[in-house]
Design brief:
It comes from Streptomyces lavendofoliae. The protein has no helices and 29 strands. By secondary structure, it is mostly beta strands. It has two domains: 237 residues, TolB, C-terminal domain (Neuraminidase, 6 Propeller), CATH 2.120.10; 117 residues, Immunoglobulin-like.
C-alpha cells in the first residue's frame, strides 16, 4: 500500500505528527493528534487499504505508541520484553505485523509483534549515526543513510552487525536542527512504490536517490532551496510510502494568489463546479526575491472521490490521493517580478445544496521547476 503523503515525527519531546508530501514539500501538522510529552521515534506505518489512512506505530522507552491519524487518537502500551532504549531506526515489515526497531551500536535490535505487544531480540546494528531505515518496495532490503559521511547503507537483520556499506558518500553529510541536542543524522527515510528513495535529515533537508534499478547513482539530489518547514524543531523519524508520480520533486516555492470567479451546479457528476483565477508571480516566496520562472507547478487539495477533477488549459493535470498538481507542459517564461493568471475549474461531486458556495482551495501553493 502507499498514499500521496508520508508522516514525520517532529520534536524530541512533545512529539507531533506531520503529513509530508515529498513531491511539492507540502507539510502540515495533524492537529487532531495530540502531542506526546516523553517523545517517540522508530516509527513505521501499517496500511489498512488504499482508501484509509495508515496506523502509525512507534516506540518510546518500553512502550508501543499507536497513532490513528484518521481518528485523531494516540495511545501507549507497555511491550513485553522491550528495554527502555534509546531508539532510533524503525519500520514496519512488508506484511504490517512487525515493527523492527534499532538502538545503540552494540545493543540488540528488536522485532515487535504489534498485535501481541511482545518484543524478540535480534542482532546488534553496528556503528554509525543512522537514525531511520525503510524497506525497498521491490526486493525488501532495508536501506539507510549514515549521517556523518552520507554512505548508503544496507541493514541486514541476519548479519552481526547488521550494517554494511552499499556505496560511500552518496549523500551530503547530515545537518542538525537548531533544537538542543539535535543529531546530525538522516532521521526520516521512505520509498515510493517504484523504488525512488527519499532521506530527510534532522534539520529538514530532503534528498532523493533513484534506486529503481540495480545501479546506484554516485550522488543523491537535494530537493529545493529550503527545508521541511517545521521551524527549529528536530525531525525525529518518518514512516510511510508514496505512490509515484511522473513529475519531478521541487520545493522552490513562488507566489500564487487566488480569485474566486463563480460556481454552478453540474449534473454529471452531480455536484458543483468552481472557477478560479490563480495568479502566479515570479517572486520566491521565502526570500521575496524576484527571479525568472520557466516552468512551474501549482498544487492544492482535491477530494479523493470519483468524479472530482481539476481542469486548466496549457498545463498537465494529475489528481491523486487528495491532491491536484497542475504542471506546465513546456517552458512558459515568466520574467522576474511579472505575473500571469491561469483559470482553473474544479468539479466537486455531491449534493449541491450541501457543498460550499466557494471551494476553499486548501493547500494552494506553486513551485518553480527546473527548465528543460
Amino acid at each position: 500500500m502507499a498514499h500521496r503523503k508520508v508522516y514525520l515525527a517532529v520534536g524530541r519531546i512533545n512529539t507531533r505528527i506531520y503529513r509530508f508530501d515529498p513531491i511539492d514539500g507540502d507539510t502540515r501538522v495533524v492537529e487532531s493528534v495530540r502531542s506526546y510529552e516523553p517523545g517517540y521515534t522508530a516509527m513505521g506505518a501499517q496500511y489498512r487499504g488504499d482508501d484509509k489512512e495508515p496506523l502509525l506505530l512507534a516506540v518510546s522507552q518500553n512502550k508501543l505508541i499507536t497513532i490513528d491519524v484518521a481518528a485523531g487518537t494516540l495511545k501507549d502500551q507497555v511491550i513485553d520484553g522491550l528495554p527502555s532504549g534509546p531508539w532510533f531506526d524503525g519500520d514496519m515489515d512488508p506484511d504490517g505485523k512487525t515493527l523492527f526497531v534499532v538502538s545503540n551500536p552494540d545493543v540488540h535490535s528488536y522485532a515487535i509483534d504489534v498485535a501481541a505487544l511482545k518484543a524478540m531480540p535480534r542482532n546488534a546494528p553496528g556503528s554509525g549515526r543512522w537514525d531511520d531505515f525503510a524497506y525497498h518496495p521491490k526486493d525488501g532490503r532495508l536501506i539507510s543513510v549514515e549521517g556523518d559521511n552520507g554512505d548508503l547503507l544496507l541493514v541486514d537483520p541476519s548479519r552481526q552487525p547488521m550494517k554494511t556499506v552499499l556505496k560511500k558518500g552518496v549523500f551530503p553529510p547530515a545537518e542538525a536542527s537548531t533544537a538542543a541536542g539535535s543529531r546530525k543524522s538522516y532521521s526520516a527515510t521512505f520509498f515510493d512504490q517504484d523504488g525512488n528513495f527519499y532521506a530527510v535529515d534532522s534539520a529538514g533537508n530532503v534528498n532523493h536517490l533513484d534506486l529503481t534499478t540495480a545501479t546506484i547513482p554516485d550522488h543523491s539530489q537535494r530537493i529545493g532551496r529550503g527545508r521541511v518547514p517545521v521551524g527549529a524543531l528536530e525531525i525525529m523519524n518518518g514512516a510511510g510510502r508514496i505512490t509515484p508520480l511522473p513529475v519531478p520533486p521541487s520545493y522552490d516555492e513562488i507566489d500564487v494568489s487566488k480569485k474566486f470567479n463563480r460556481a454552478w451546479e453540474s449534473s454529471e457528476p452531480r455536484g458543483r463546479v468552481y472557477s478560479f483565477d490563480l495568479t502566479l508571480t515570479a517572486v520566491s516566496k521565502g526570500s521575496g526575491k524576484a527571479e525568472d520562472v520557466r516552468r512551474f507547478r501549482i498544487s492544492f487539495d482535491l477530494p479523493s472521490v470519483m468524479g472530482a477533477k481539476a481542469e486548466a488549459s496549457g498545463v498537465r493535470v494529475i489528481a491523486q490521493d487528495g491532491k491536484a498538481y497542475l504542471e506546465a507542459e513546456n517552458d512558459q517564461f515568466l520574467a522576474a517580478g511579472s505575473s500571469r493568471p491561469i483559470t482553473v475549474q474544479i468539479t466537486v461531486p455531491g449534493d449541491p445544496s450541501r457543498l460550499p458556495q466557494e471551494y476553499p482551495l486548501d493547500g494552494l501553493k506553486a513551485t518553480r521547476l527546473p527548465g528543460r
